[in-house]
Specification:
Residues 1-28 are annotated as: Disordered. This is proline--tRNA ligase. It catalyses: tRNA(Pro) + L-proline + ATP = L-prolyl-tRNA(Pro) + AMP + diphosphate. 34% of the residues lie in helices and 26% in strands. It has helices spanning 4-10, 38-48, 65-84, 98-102, 105-109, 137-147, 193-214, 261-266, 290-299, 328-344, 359-368, 379-383, 405-430, 438-446, 459-468, and strands spanning 52-54, 61-63, 88-89, 95-96, 117-121, 124-132, 156-165, 180-190, 220-223, 235-243, 248-259, 269-271, 277-279, 281-288, 316-320, 349-351, 373-377, 386-391, 397-401, 432-434, 450-455, 477-482, 503-510. Helix 14 (438-446) links the parallel strand 20 (432-434) and strand 21. The relative contact order is 0.11.
């Protein structure tokens, strides 16, 4: 999917923009259109928008400051919320011994093809190869069994912000499927299942808030099928997003109840108040930098990135627009003052005072990077004590008095955040199709829909759906059974097997 050369040449700003006549020739812009070649468009926009740079190891990407600032904003929110829940941060090593990795066979089987191994130190072969963590259950739980002895040691609630390595072999895609990525992983242990169940849903709600409140992306909360749940776990809940352009669902984040399976494997026992031995109940949960890729896919357009104000590194860019014979310095000073006022009011604002680029080049540059709001200041604006404000999401322009600047900018940014969510929800909802028969299901699948269908909840039937829909585009599978269940009239039959249906489930192709 990479389009490095086109992206790099388009991202080259040295197109001699010093003179006024080069204003039309920006040297920016994307060479692919979102609706014509989504994959190439996506690859180009994440590079040209200065989010990532391709690295010389396939499937690994450099996360540039424009990306890291988004990650840090989400991290600050989530970290504060889990601390309110008395969850503490820790850090475990990236290396895993093969012995520990193999202790939980069911669990590691799902990851086995993706595990990367260190086999040498310098020129010397290691006696025992060492794995790089694909996830940390097997890394952490031997120590949980050491630290948990009695009921007073519970609950044990830890989280770590770290990287994991999964040696993806097919179609690495920036953010969506990479060989190394950043995430948080929470690992908790409780005395009772009720406590574990409660936490699973509390964490899932935080993930919904990250997607809907910060990234302006609508998601469905639900439970994964037995086939799709976390290997070795009791049950998995997830939030599911959908990319209408590709007709694919995408798992946004997961919160698993592991039950007592890992407690059995790793001897995580405790003594209760009565002196009786018991096994702990465990959860694990995580979200990753994949969130950022979903945001790009959902909101981006043919001009580049479109960032929701809540996560944008720069929410407002202030650009001077001097004309011939204008007092350039006074205009530059007005831009600096405007940016300072906005920063003091709590916004993330910058003034672009570079004199080697034309205003037109700057407009295109910051549009490509997705900045939610642009303020333009020229001689007329100064004479009228106003600024011109241009929205990134819909390109609408409005002149606002400088006296009322802060209040107006606040309202506009809030409106952009809500408008992005509403537009994404409208597009997502238009992509949902109810299918009650196999014919309706396959028609909807070919139309790139997210399908809500009645299902008998049998594993073999789900496997059969995968087999029957295999093709160039990839097989369909269950995405999740939504917690918010529509009414299921008596006598409703499963779309795939014709047996009595027990629930409504979302189906589709996925990333």
């Amino acid at each position: 999917m990479a389009n490095d050369k086109a992206a790099k040449s388009n991202a080259n700003p040295k197109s001699g923009a010093k003179k006024k006549e080069v204003k039309k020739e920006t040297g920016l812009g994307l060479s692919h259109k979102r609706d014509e070649n989504f994959g190439e468009w996506y690859s180009e926009v994440v590079v040209s928008g200065e989010m990532i740079e391709y690295y010389d190891i396939s499937g690994c990407y450099i996360l540039r400051p424009w990306t890291m600032s988004i990650w840090e904003i989400m991290q600050a929110f989530f970290d504060a919320e889990i601390k309110k829940m008395k969850i503490k941060n820790c850090y475990f090593p990236v290396f895993v011994s093969p012995g520990v990795l193999q202790r939980e066979k069911d669990h590691i089987e799902g990851f086995a093809p993706e595990v990367a191994w260190v086999t040498k130190s310098g020129d010397t072969d290691l006696e025992v190869p060492i794995a790089l963590r694909p996830t940390s259950e097997t890394v952490m739980y031997p120590y949980y069994s050491k630290w948990i002895r009695g009921h007073r040691d519970l609950p044990l609630r830890l989280n770590q912000w770290c990287n994991v390595v999964r040696w993806e072999l097919s179609n690495p895609t920036p953010f969506i499927r990479s060989r190394e990525f950043l995430w948080q992983e929470g690992h908790t242990a409780f005395a009772t299942q009720a406590e574990a169940d409660k936490e699973v849903l509390e964490i899932l709600e935080l993930y919904r808030r990250i997607y809907e409140e910060f990234l302006a992306i609508p998601v469905v909360k639900g439970k994964k099928s037995e086939n799709e749940k976390f290997a070795g776990g009791l049950y998995t809940t997830s939030i599911e997003a959908f990319i209408p352009n590709t007709g694919r669902g995408i798992q946004g984040a997961t919160s698993h109840c592991l039950g007592q399976n890992f407690a059995k494997m790793f001897d995580i026992n405790f003594e209760n108040e009565k002196g009786e031995k018991g096994m702990v109940w465990q959860n694990s949960w995580g979200y990753s930098t994949r969130t950022i890729g979903v945001m790009v896919m959902v909101h981006g357009d043919d001009k580049g990135l479109v960032l929701p104000p809540k996560v944008a590194s720069v929410q407002v860019i202030v650009i001077p627009v001097p004309y011939k014979d204008a007092d350039t310095q006074a205009i530059f000073d007005a831009c600096s003052t405007t940016a300072e006022r906005l920063n003091e009011a709590g916004f993330r604002a910058e003034a672009d005072l570079r004199d080697n680029y034309s205003p037109g080049w700057k407009y295109s540059h910051w549009e490509l990077k997705g900045v939610p709001l642009r303020i333009e200041i020229g001689p007329k604006d100064m004479a009228n004590n106003q600024v011109r404000v241009v929205r990134r999401d819909n390109a609408s322009k409005v002149d606002i008095p400088t006296s009322n600047l802060v209040e107006q900018i606040k309202d506009i940014l809030e409106n952009i955040q809500q408008s992005l969510f509403d537009a994404a929800k409208q597009k997502r909802d238009a992509s949902i199709k109810v299918a009650k028969t196999w014919e309706e299901f396959t028609t909807a699948l070919n139309e790139k829909k997210m399908i809500l269908a009645p299902w008998c909840d049998e594993e073999e039937v789900e496997k059969d759906v995968k087999t029957r829909t295999k093709g160039e585009m990839g097989a369909a599978k269950s995405l999740c059974t939504p917690f918010d269940q529509p009414e299921l009239p008596e006598g409703t039959l499963c779309f795939a097997s014709g047996k009595p249906a027990t629930k409504w489930t979302y189906w589709g192709r996925s990333y």
